[in-house]
Amino acid sequence: MVSKQKSMKFYGSKEGYDADVMIDSKAMLSKDDFVSTGVLTYALGDIIEVELPEYDVFALGDKCKMTVYTPSGLFVMETTILAKDKGSVIVLNPPDNRRKFTEKREFPRVDVKNEGLLFGFQDKSKKHEHQFETPIRFSIRNISVNGLGFKIEENAMLEKIIQKHSQLEVELILGFLVPCTLEIVREEKMNNGTYYGARFILIPDEKTNALRGFILKNQIETYFVQKRENETKKALEKKSAAIQ
C-alpha cells in the first residue's frame, strides 16, 4: 500500500516547522495534463487530506505532484492517492517531507481491535527467560509504527513478572501474523487486567511493509469516521441554533 516516493523540493529558510503550518494552505495536485487546486485540511504522520472540487478525477494509486503554498514556504512533493471521500482525497505524506516538520507524536497511534499471543518473556535484568507452555492471548488497543498498547486480562502471575523494560516474545494477529519482540515502557492497572505500553524491538524485515500498510489503512478509516461524526455534530448544532 505504501510505495517509495521519489523526490521532494523545499523552498524555505529552515527545517523543523510545526506540521500545522500546512493546515488551511492552498494545495495544487497535478497528474498527466490535469491540475486541480484545493485546500490542505489535515496532515498527520503518513497522510495528508486535500479538499478539492475535482476529487473524482483522481483514482486510487494515481501518482501525483503536489504543491503546497504555506506562510512558511513552498513545498513540492511527489505523492500517491491513497483514499477518496466526497470532496477530498487522502495522499501519502512522503518521508522526506515529514522530516521537514515536527509533530506532537512522531508516529501517530490508531485504535484497533485485534489480538496477539504472548509466547515468552525476558525480565528487565536480561538474566531470566521463560517460555509459556500455552501462549497467553492479549487484546491490542492501539498501534503505531514504533509500538503498541495492549491489555492482558487479570493474571496475578504475569503482573508480578512482567515489569517495565521486560522484553516479550509475541505474535500479532492483524489479518496476517507478525512475530516480534516488544519492550514494556509503561503499565497501568485496570479493573479486570493490566494495560501495557510497549515499543517494538525487533520485527522481521518482510513484515515491516505489511505492518505499515495495516496502520495506514486504519488511520485513514479512523479519520474518515471521525470526520463524518464531526460533520454530523456541526449540522445538528446548526439546526438546533436555527430553531432557537
Automatic annotation (TrEMBL):
PilZ domain sequence ranges: 104-215
Pfam family, one: PilZ
InterPro entries: PilZ_domain
Protein's name in the database: C-di-GMP-binding flagellar brake protein YcgR
Gene3D superfamilies in UniProt: predicted glycosyltransferase like domains
Keywords in alphabetical order: Cell projection, Cilium, Flagellum
